[in-house]
Amino acid sequence: MLNRFRTLPATAMAAVLGLTLVAAPSAADAREKPKKEQAAKGKQLSPSRGFQPMLKKLGDAQNAKDAAALQAALAEAAGAATSADDKYLLGFYRLQQGIIGNDQAVQGQGLDEMLDSGMTPPESLAPYNFFSGQFAYQAKNYAKAVTRFEAAKAAGSTEAVLPALLMDSYLSSGNLDKGWEVAQASIAAQRAAGQKPSDELYVRPAQAFQNANRTPELLDVLSMRVEDYPQAAAWRNLLFIMLRDAGGDKALNLDILRLMRQTKSMTERAEYSEYAALGVEAAMPGEVVSVIQQGKAAGVIPAKDSYFDDILESQTPRARDDAKAVLLDAAKPATLSNPRAALGTADALVAMGEYAKAIPLYQAVATSGNPVGQYRLGVTQLLAGQTDAGAATLGQVTTGPRARLAKLWVAQTKAKAAPAAAN
Q1: Is 367 helix (H, G, I), strand (E, B) or coil?
Q2: Which of 389, 329, 397, 402 is CA-nearest to residue 369?
Q3: Long-range contact pairs involving 153-160 (C-beta distance under 8 Å, separation at least 24)
């Protein structure tokens, strides 16, 4: 969840808004200035005749930093503010009252009066709209916050927190799609600038989609997140949901668990138990043995565990015996010409770590039109260090239940290689 921003101190507010740049001259002063000087300084404010007597009271109270006197002068001046210039000046002094009294509501009212007058200088539109939006955001008036933040963005605001605040305002007002659109644009911009996007740009949309039971969009967010935050916890958040939603597709469950294993995001005993059971059923004794050993090494499975020890006792000799048979089968032309046999043999070879020997078999399966073979071919190419080939192969897996997994394997490989590339 984004942190709600605290009210800025009066001095900080004044400095950021550049209030000293907003002049409030009397009509007489304005008339006395040479026309060339006026042109050089831009458009001057011209208060109406009825408002002119109010300016001295307002200015004196501001200069004295007398909040009570300024409040009284504002009450008197409000009835005399008829022109756009008058209303801008009224808002200016109301903002001063809010700053002097450290009253955020009054500060926001002053900014709104200045902005609504239509007389705000172009160079002030970005900061004025941003702070008005921030006040609305803090007051949980998200519709108004969206309007002001969008105006600040259009005026060229460079506030670093603007994208996150605009995103959260959309999300909090119930416009999830627009909020995620803003987040994606900010993510793309930060990546293009060589920066790591803020995690809030992922976490808040993910929370919103989860609360709305929009699982496909939730998975989209979490899939992008692991590209920038490839930690095991982030992978687990994503893959656990995918595993939960895979249903009774045992082969798909096994493929998801394999990616969980690769990303070191298997942290619960139940996941190792399911992995082992699926591996035994799929006749992958070598993979079963290695995953249980990994679980013990990670401390998830105790060193002495009757359930897993029984599985190891039955699968270890089988894995040893099967290894010889699998290697013999892999060399037979008949295996290569039989897609079903080729797939099973290739899977067994991968479980043994024999990636190079598995690739030709998977290629034969993929050529036959088997989407599982196409997917596992790409994964095996990545495991074999054939990064470009693996990414190209997985790039062809665009439909079906493994389409997302295909992209995630590529993302995981890139993330794993990133530190080495940086050295």
Answers
A1: helix
A2: 397
A3: 155/122, 155/125, 155/126, 155/129, 156/126, 157/126, 157/127, 157/129, 157/130, 158/126, 159/126, 159/130
* DSSP H or E segment with residue 94: helix 84-100
C-beta neighbour count of 16 within 10 angstroms: 13
CA-to-CA dists, residue 290 to 103, 278, 350, 362, angstroms: 64, 14, 12, 22
- 203-210 own/partner pairs: CB under 8 Å, 24+ apart: 203/1, 204/1, 204/2, 204/164, 204/167, 204/168, 204/171, 204/179, 205/167, 205/171, 205/176, 205/179, 205/180, 207/1, 208/171, 208/176, 208/179, 208/180, 209/176, 209/180
User: Once rounded to an integer, what is the mean pLDDT over residues 217-243?
Assistant: 96
- What span, in angstroms and rounded, lies between the C-alpha atoms of 149 and 171? 14
Residue 65 CA to residue 14 CA, distance in Å, equals 13
Q: What is the pTM of this model?
A: 0.81
In the structure encoding, which two tokens stand for residue 403, read together? Answer: 């389409």
Q: Which residue is listed with tokens 């989209």?
A: 220
Domain-by-domain residue ranges, the chain?
Answer: 10-136, 230-422
| 319-328 long-range contacts, CB within 8 A, separation 24+ | 319/285, 319/286, 319/288, 319/289, 322/283, 322/285, 322/286, 322/348, 323/286, 323/352, 326/352, 327/354, 327/357
CB atoms within 10 A of CB 186: 19
- CA–CA distance, 327 with 221 (Å, rounded to integer): 42
At the second CATH level, the architecture of 230-422 is: Alpha Horseshoe (1.25)
| 301-347 residue pLDDT tens | 999 999 999 999 999 999 998 888 999 999 899 999 999 999 999 99
